[in-house]
UniProtKB/TrEMBL annotation:
Residues forming coiled coils: none
Homology family: Belongs to the NAD(P)-dependent epimerase/dehydratase family.
Annotated ranges, domain NAD-dependent epimerase/dehydratase: 18-262
Signal peptide as annotated in the record: none
SUPFAM superfamilies: NAD(P)-binding Rossmann-fold domains
Protein's recorded name: NAD-dependent epimerase/dehydratase family protein
Superkingdom assignment: Bacteria
Pfam families: Epimerase
Annotated metabolic or biological route of this protein: Bacterial outer membrane biogenesis; LPS O-antigen biosynthesis
PANTHER family: DTDP-D-GLUCOSE 4,6-DEHYDRATASE-RELATED
């Protein structure tokens, strides 16, 4: 692993208690699965179940090394109580772009004060390390987004929907709150900037993954899939089991005080993505180009882009494993099994 990074605490998982905040959902449930598989002594699943569900963690309910805690990040005393005796925290709970467009008030509270409350509780209880779930939204959206989106890239907002920019800005603030707590209270942290996460237990709250699900639903009901443009727009996904592995690797790594991209092996265009879904469904429907109605939260860019992940390899020894074609198959296989009649 690279030597250019600051080092701090790393967790020996077999002797550690790890708390996942915002656990009852996509990334949280898979992170719990992998922490347990890695032998973690105890995994605490914390959620207020505001939009996560018991269903996502049902399979873990009776696990002997799992504890489920209903608590709200906006209530500091509950979080101080929940983090007693905890060695590591994976902080996931957040509102994304769609949440910022629907309920901006709650989104700002959870993405800012919620993060601050968790960091304060961790500092009080001498938690060794926090992994903060950030996003490629920290580069912004719109016309400035093209080429390679390296970790040092600046934030762009021109031509993007306000909700997406508010979301990205909230993640930038969350990252900097982490750094403040390291500087002022000695709390080690790593920031993982996920690109769009997709996979089994997918929800309908993330704009790009939502596009996969909507396209699948259209094709299954015999309608032509709709593309908002000519199909050349880039998207960069990362499969959820790869994200969960990154969270586990980050907890185990001594690297501290830095941010890294967690992206899939390759970017795809919208046209390629739609074709993958058509192929999966065995359909020869032709995509229909229909511009979005005004006010749609669509994540835009200024041209082709790619999100490199070589820093994560260097800093925590992580690389993505699941190519997009395989990931789409796994996601849609899961979706088929869980179709309600
Ligand atoms: N899903 C993606 O495509 C994606 C992409 C980039 C970054 N991220 C980031 O990864 C993280 C996890 O993503 P996800 O898709 O699993 O998230 P999600 O939206 O499905 O889950 C968030 C969880 O947090 C819980 N929560 C919300 N407010 C809370 C509060 N006040 N107290 C306690 N729990 C609360 C919700 O009930 C939910 O279970 C988020 O921080 C997100 O911003 C996600």
């Amino acid at each position: 692993m690279g030597t250019n990074y600051k080092t701090g605490q790393s967790l020996d998982l077999k002797n550690s208690t790890v708390l996942i905040a915002g656990a009852a959902s996509l990334v949280g449930s898979h992170t719990a699965d992998q922490l347990l598989a890695a032998g973690t002594r105890e995994v605490i699943l914390l959620d207020n179940f505001s939009f996560g569900s018991m269903q996502a963690i049902e399979h873990l309910r009776d696990h002997e090394r799992v504890k489920i805690v209903r608590a709200d990040l906006l209530r500091l005393p509950e979080i101080i109580q929940a983090t007693k005796g905890v060695d590591g925290v994976v902080h996931l709970a957040a509102y994304m772009s769609l949440g910022f467009s629907q309920t901006p008030w709650q989104a700002i509270d959870v993405n800012l004060r919620g993060v601050q409350n968790m960091l304060e509780a961790c500092a009080i209880n001498n938690v060794k390390k926090v992994i903060f779930a950030s996003s490629n939204a920290t580069y912004g959206y719109g016309t400035g987004i093209k080429g390679e989106l390296h970790e040092s890239m600046a934030f762009h907002s021109e031509g993007a929907p306000p909700a997406a920019i508010l979301y990205g800005a909230s993640k930038i603030m969350g990252e900097q709150l982490c750094r403040t707590y390291l500087q002022q209270r000695g709390l080690d942290y790593l920031v993982l900037r996920y690109s769009t996460v997709y996979g089994e237990r997918q929800h309908y709250r993330a704009a790009n993954a939502l596009y996969i699900m909507q396209t699948y639903d259209q094709i299954k009901s015999g309608q032509a899939p709709v593309m908002p443009g000519d199909g050349s727009e880039t998207k960069h996904f990362v499969y959820v089991t790869d994200v969960a592995r990154a969270n586990v690797a980050a907890l185990q790594s001594p690297t501290t005080d830095t941010a890294m991209n967690i992206s899939g092996p390759d970017a795809v265009t919208t046209g390629e993505l739609v074709q993958l879904i058509l192929d999966y469904c065995g359909s020869n429907l032709k995509p229909e180009i229909k511009p979005d109605p005004p006010g749609t939260v669509r994540l835009t860019s200024g041209g082709a882009f790619y999100i490199p992940h070589n820093k994560a390899k260097d800093a925590i020894g992580w690389e993505p494993q699941v190519p997009i074609k395989e990931g789409i198959k796994r996601l849609l296989d899961w979706r088929k099994q869980n179709d309600t009649p």
